[in-house]
Amino acid sequence: MDSREETPGAVPSLAFTAGGPSPERAALDGEQQRTITRLVRALPPKLRDPLVLVGSGDYSYDDVAAMLATPVGTVKWRVSEARRQLRVKLTRLGF
């Protein structure tokens, strides 16, 4: 019998690419990403805008403060508060 032949009644193994997520993990990651996106969009603009700008990695807190004509300390608080609210909502949803 060729070693590549399967035993009758055996469940064939599923081969995944090395380092790649399983289909189940990919589906869960996709669901989590959609949930986070929905929750970020639901934030009030005063929290959402600084969170997205700082989170992009393209702008510093000083840059965002200048763009929004807001003190740096206020931008830091808004980003922190946005993250806190998202963390609470994600925890309630079981993520």
Report on this model:
The protein is an all-alpha fold. The protein has a domain of about 50 residues: Arc Repressor Mutant, subunit A (Orthogonal Bundle), CATH 1.10.10. The chain has 4 helices and no strands. α1 crosses α4, α2 crosses α4 and α3 crosses α4. The longest helix has 21 residues. It is elongated. It starts with about 20 loop residues before the first helix and ends with a helix. About 5% of the residues have low confidence.
Radius of gyration: 22 Å
**SSE run:** HHHH
- CATH architectural label of the domain at 44-95: Orthogonal Bundle
State the CATH topology of the domain at 44-95. Arc Repressor Mutant, subunit A
Largest sheet: none
User: Helix content range of the residues, please?
Assistant: 55-70%
Distance between the termini: 48 Å
Give the count of helical stretches.
4
Instruction: Assign the CATH class of the domain at 44-95.
Output: Mainly Alpha
Which whole number gives the mean pLDDT?
A: 84
